[in-house]
Amino acid sequence: MWYQKTLTLSAKSRGFHLVTDEILNQLADMPRVNIGLLHLLLQHTSASLTLNENCDPTVRHDMERFFLRTVPDNGNYEHDYEGADDMPSHIKSSMLGTSLVLPVHKGRIQTGTWQGIWLGEHRIHGGSRRIIATYRGVKNDHFGVLHMHGKPRRRQSVHNDWKATQIKVEDVLFAMVKEVENRPAVSLKTQPGAGGAATSAAQRCASKPPSE
Questions:
Q1: Domain 2-141 part of CATH 2.60.120.10
Q2: pLDDT tens-digit map of 92-101
């Protein structure tokens, strides 16, 4: 089962923001499955998505200060068409990434106790941000069941079908061998030559012109 939806995050100031609830609230209509994966792609080059501390906001403040020191606005950048924060935003986006893949179990994302989804807004005035959420999952996670051609089938049933197919193939091969064994012998020593004369294969090869 596949599910896809475009999410919109409200405009935020430059810095790191906990957006777990803002994302999940827009996925309330996501089908409930037992096992699945949720892929989130941020469609921008001046922001980022990452997983980190979801409790203490000072972690986000410290992270922003670190990136402001590491990738300063006043660097010697050629690409500054949209202001001093233009190129630094692209660098930070590449450093942190713009996508996440999260496991889903029984309709809930399986993040750690202290993990939350962060939006890294790297522009001073970034505006709203779009995320493409793609969800893939199955409703039955019983290990005794295989899904083949849309129909759930027990492993033992699949195993029996395979054994039956294997036996049929062996029977066909055995019949082919017996058929070859029962055929009358064919002499390979002589064959009709030109003008009706019988010549051996060795003689014909010996008389073959070297240049042919």
A1: no
A2: 999 999 999 9
